[in-house]
Amino acid sequence: MSLRPLTDETLLVRLETLVHQERESVAEIVEHLAEVDRRDIVLDRGYATLFEYCTKRLRYSEAAAFLRIRAARAAKQFPRVLDDLKSGAIHLDAIMRLYPHLDARNCDRLLAQAAGASKREVLALVSSLGGAGGAPERDVIRRLPVLPPATSPSARDAQPPPGIALPSAGAAFPPAGAALPPVAMARRQDPDGSVGTQTVLAPSRIRLSFTADDGFLAMVERLRRLRRHKYPAGRLEDLLKDAVASILARIDPERLKQDRRRGRGAAKPRSRAPSRRVPAAVKAEVWKRDGGRCAYVAPDGRRCEGRDFLEFDHAIPWAIGGKSDNAANIRLLCRPHNQMLARRRFGPRRIAAP
Question: Of 206, 207, 189, which is closest to residue 198 (Cα–Cα)?
Answer without folding.
Answer: 189
